[in-house]
Each structure stands twice: as C-alpha cells, then as structure tokens.
Amino acid sequence: MEPRQQGLLDKEPLKEVDEDLVSEVDLDNTMTEEEREDMENELIKLEEEITTLKQVLASKEKRHLELKQKLGITPLSELRQNFSRSWCDMQTSTAYKKTSETLSTAGQRTSAAFSNLGTAITRKFGDMRNSPSFKSFEEKVESTVSNIKQSKVGGTGGAGSFEEVLSSAAHASAQDTPTNNITERSERSC
Questions:
Q1: pTM, to two decimals
Q2: What average pLDDT does the structure give for the chain?
C-alpha cells in the first residue's frame, strides 16, 4: 500500500488500494458472536417476511384488477372519478373558500369603483358642458358651421339659423320641381 494525501474533492476515482483499506476495517470487534447470530437470524426472518408480504400484495393486486375488470372500471373512469373527488375536496378546502371570498369581494369593490368612476366622469362632462368657456366654444362652433352652410347653400347675406338655411334650400328645391310633393310637405313644416 502506498500512502497518499486525500483532499475533500479528489478528482481521481477510488483505486483498488482504497478498497483494500475499507475491507481491512474490522467491524466485528464491537459485538459478540451470539449478538451476531441473533442479528443474522433476525435479518433472515425479515427477508422471509418481506418475501411473503410481496407475494400477498401481488395476489391482492391481481384480485383487485380482476374485480375492476368485472365491474367495468377503466383507468379513464378512475381518472374522472379521482378528478371529480379532488375538485370537490379542493372546493371544500379552507384555502379555496378564503380565496373565493377574497376574489368575490375584490370583484364587488372593482365594480363599485368603475361605477363611481363612470358617475364622476358623467358629472364632470356635465359640469364642463355648463361651463362658460365650453358654452363660448359651442357658440363659436355653431356660428362657424352655420356660416359654412350658408355660404355653400346659397350665399345669402344674413346670418340665419340652421332651420332657416334648410327652409331656403327646400324652397329653392320646390321651385325647381313643382310636382315634388315631399318638398312641399317639408316646406310647410318648416
């Protein structure tokens, strides 16, 4: 045997010399011959019991499979049943109930927040529409639209309302086609 220095992270695998060192360690020194025999006997009994239990388990598994086949229980139906049972168990769990309640409360609060937001926006638009600056802007737009329509319809000099412009357009149309009954009715209603 040759001595060598060992580090924590040896890169070399164990050599035959190392295996010899391990096999030379005598673990039998710590127990008596009688204790050793008792342990070996217990080990043999445990191995026999394990073998017997494996045979019993294999027999029970075989009978289990036979009964399932006779009852028509397929792996797919078992999977469905397990899934349904798991889903039911999950829904009855405390965590699911708490989460469900929390999400429900959050949904109600979110709905209320959006409702309040919609109400606030509607109120702000109403306030804005009634403000003097918006009214001034609205009047300017109406005046501009009216002027544009007047200049396109007939170029009359007066500043008339939109209804007057429509009336004059209807009147001009009625003069072009005197048999047109629709224009005559619209002329009377204006």
A1: 0.31
A2: 77
